[in-house]
């Protein structure tokens, strides 16, 4: 059964990458808007592909692909903020101070740099310990960073939701739908961490299936909303 919804996740991820690429290359769309939109959709699709890969076990064959998207979710909130700003302000310039929005993603990536320096065999052993064992072996820092992600994401989502109120109905709905999609993904990811902390891997299958299927549906709905807009 896991192979079925892993395949669903892979197909949706391919769809998302194509969607982001098409919008980025579309000559008639606003350059900055399509840039930020693509920077949300394409990394999100890669996150979905990697997550689906854990359930299909292909990452054990290609361990160097493991955890390559682990810090991407920390980008979604700031990118949503920048996209919303493009809709509201007539002229915007990316300032050096705007880089501070990406500090949580940089910190999270730096905390996991040790993993990337391991050999293929060492990475496979870590994967078997963390993902494919019967008991979780995550450090307390893993749970802390999941909470930080939840707070960070919803701070930006709340800001985007409030700011988009001044936009016309079509633009407002598009941004809020995107915000809801990001929020659902972050919430599900957080509850997976809570489940692992409280119950081990008892409900991991149900939560994993829910995350993959809902994220896949979100990509298809975003495609529909994007075409309408």
Describe this structure in words.
The chain is an all-alpha fold and 229 residues long. The chain is 76% helix and 0% strand. It has helices at residues 2-25, 31-56, 58-61, 73-88, 103-111, 113-116, 120-130, 140-163, 169-199, 204-228. α1 packs parallel to α10 (204-228). The longest helix is centred in the C-terminal third of the chain and has 31 residues, at 169-199. The radius of gyration is 18 Å and the shape is globular.
Short description:
By secondary structure, this protein is mainly α. Helices cover about 75% and strands about 0% of the residues.
List the topology elements.
Layout: H1 2-25, H2 31-56, H3 58-61, H4 73-88, H5 103-111, H6 113-116, H7 120-130, H8 140-163, H9 169-199, H10 204-228
Features:
single chain, 10 helices, 0% strand, globular
Low-confidence stretches: none
Q: Which oligomeric form is depicted? A: single chain
The whole-angstrom Rg is: 18 Å
Helix coverage percent:
over 70%
Number of helices: 10
What percent strand? under 5%
Q: What is the element string, with H for helices and E for strands? A: HHHHHHHHHH
Structural class, from secondary structure content?
mainly alpha
The best one-word shape is: globular
Would you count the extended β strands for me? Answer: 0
Report mean pLDDT, rounded to a whole number: 86
Largest sheet: none
Report how far the terminal alpha carbons are from each other. 36 Å
């Amino acid at each position: 059964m896991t192979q079925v919804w892993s395949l669903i996740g892979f197909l949706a991820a391919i769809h998302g990458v194509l969607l982001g690429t098409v919008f980025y290359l579309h000559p008639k769309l606003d350059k900055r808007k399509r840039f930020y939109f693509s920077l949300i959709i394409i990394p999100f699709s890669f996150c979905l592909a990697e997550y689906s890969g854990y359930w299909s076990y292909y990452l054990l064959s290609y361990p160097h692909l493991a955890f390559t998207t682990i810090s991407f979710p920390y980008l979604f909130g700031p990118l949503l903020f920048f996209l919303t700003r493009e809709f509201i302000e007539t002229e915007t310039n990316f300032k050096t101070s705007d880089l501070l929005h990406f500090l949580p993603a940089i910190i999270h990536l730096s905390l996991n740099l040790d993993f990337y320096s391991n050999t293929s065999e060492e990475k496979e052993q870590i994967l078997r310990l963390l993902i494919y064992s019967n008991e979780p072996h995550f450090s307390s820092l893993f749970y802390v960073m999941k909470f930080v992600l939840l707070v960070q994401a919803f701070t930006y989502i709340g800001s985007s939701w409030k700011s988009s109120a001044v936009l016309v109905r079509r633009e407002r709905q598009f941004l809020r739908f995107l915000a809801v999609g990001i929020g659902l993904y972050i919430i599900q990811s957080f509850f997976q961490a809570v489940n692992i902390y409280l119950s081990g891997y008892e409900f991991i299958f149900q939560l994993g299936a829910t995350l993959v299927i809902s994220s896949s549906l979100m990509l298809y709905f975003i495609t529909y909303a994007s075409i309408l807009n």
